[in-house]
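step: validate -> pass
step: tokenize input -> pass
step: predict -> running
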Amino acid sequence: MTTANASSSSTNSPTNTVFGVPTGLLATAASLVLIGAFLAVVYDITNVVGRRDQFVLLAAGTLALATVVGWTLRPRYALALAVLIAAGGFAAYFLALPESQVALLSPERLLADTFALLSGLSALRLLSADVWALAVTPGPVFLAWYLAVRGRIAPAVAVAGSGLGLFVLTTDATGTLTLLGVGAGMAAVGFDGIDRFGSAGGQLDVLTVVLAAMVVLSATVTVLPGTGGSPVIPDEGVADQPTVEASLVSADDRISIVGSISLSPQVRFEVQSTSPDYWQTATFDRYTGDGWVRTGDTRDYEGGRLAGPDGPSRLVRQTVTPATPLDSMPAAWRPVAVSGAIENETLVTQQGNLRPDRAVEIGETYNVTSAVPQYTAASLRRTGTDYPDEIRERYLALPDSTSDRVRDRAAEITGDAETPYDKAVAVEEWLEANKEYSLRVSRPDGDIAESFLFEMDAGYCTYYASTMVVLLRSEGVPARFVTGYTTGERVGDDRYVVRGLDSHAWVEVYFEDTGWVRFDPTPAGPRQDAESTTLSDARTEGQTGVDTNETNVESNETEQPTTTANDTATPTENGSEPNGTPIDSNAPGPNIDERLGITPTGDGTTEEDEGGGLVPEVPSRETVFVGLVGLLGVVAGVRRTRLPAHLRFATAAYQRRTDSPADDVFRAYDRLELALERDYRPRRPGETVRAYLDSLSRVGVDERTRQVGRLYERAKYGDGVTRADADEAVAAANAVVRARLPLVRRWTD
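step: predict -> pass
step: emit ->
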């Protein structure tokens, strides 16, 4: 009998709905949206690392399995299955690690790596990011969807939200997906609450307020520092644009390619070197479509000699003296030894670059010995294509979203080239000849290289270098993206002054038995003119920090030109550089790069590209969305607190008498009804005053209040009221209303 009654009660209970849709169904759907946001983040990662198709199959299979299990297995068995799935995924990840990495594993290392991931280290930094992404997905997805299918919405949101939260902490989740996930999670919990406890008045308001608060907070509060930029080098320049230096040289382990950019003429450091060169700071191997990531970890420099190039080399010794604090260690490729003030605080990346463990302060001189590769065009042309596995895995990878037209264009450009060297030269020359150089560009949507190839007429070095790497990898030639500084201004036989405007990005191509060789596809002619003009304008304006004693030209009739080394490091057929210098001098390419796009004029203003100009900044769609959600939350919060009703009730504390006794009675009753509505319930449509007061008599409505009701009926429907009646009604209303406003009562006592 008990079971039957319970069943009958459950069957007859009304279903809560929002806009006619059952709230239970809405809660499950919102849970699926949250899981989808988590999957979308992992999808983006697997697209970059080349496992997109495998991930789609894995995700679909996991959701299908969770649906079936949700209908058949009890929670304890499903939880055990989820643990097995998660354990199997991580076991596969560890088995996929290279032996060199497995040898480094220890509890301390695992703890440090976990903390690094949770404090802003992108998952794309992991060497085996593809296997890791596939490993972390099935467990939480299976468990979250299983719980949602079973109607356990809150635990489902907790599991899926934790998965998404991990990628928020690693900075891999975009703002849009974070907003979507937060909104879906809160909606799922809110709809589930309405489904369980009803929506009588307040539940929907609470849901709206909490949802709006979470969306606004997730969009405006930065939990962890973002990537890119520099705490040392100011990220500022002309026209309020970010500087090239801060976005390239000082980017940490991830570079996002931006739109318009500016230059800094400030002196950064001086180099005393036995030979001029490019001063390299970082190398990036993983292309994401909108930027670059440096994979792998760093290790302490423990003294001694580091590994040199694969082939012949010569030693170049440099002494670097910072003029401003540096968060990088510029040096000629390839550094093999370090000494000086920062020696014991130097890190070595897996790509072979040097990094300081702290900022190198002004005057903290350090010494670097580099083994600079030696080669000729003929020697590079003779190299084969039997690349080591590590080179293939790291430096031939492209996102799965790379389009066929990019690969077709690469094949078209290199059509007559038979060797990797000839292909590199063909791509370099094609980019120099077919694209203009400008700093005034709009950041394109989608893949940077594809946009630069087919949609953009101009760009700066990051666009040129990124596109060259993508084209070469499409043709099976290992290449990587490199940042640093060009030579700078020569102030002596072996001394160079390097400014922020010398920051640059270029390309390195791998050749067997030689190693990494520099190529520079960015056009050099207009850059050198822009350097002279930019520096001249800075001096004319009296900017400080743009000169040293050696570069100060105030007493000279003409300005000293900056270094005018040859335009590219590409060797010629006879083994010498285009200017006739023997190749073992390894003369660097252009001494500046990021100087165009805004051409300074004589009056100190800038000449913008045709069609340029200042336009009002339109808020992004995300900003508008967050603003609207915040406004909706405020409205719901006001409703929930019943602030309008409270304000209306506060205004009822006093009543000014009029010449009409009837109007005074009507006003007195309205004030009383506000008090009754606040304490008990409002008068229903069609309910008479007498019926309303009678229904409240059992909860304590006194005779004085009922008398005001009778006076109201007499004034409205009877033979009217006298001034004495009106005074009686006003006095009764004053007593009732002011009793509910303690502050007013205190003032009137």
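step: describe -> The chain has three domains: 17-223, 268-522, 642-739.
step: cleanup -> pass
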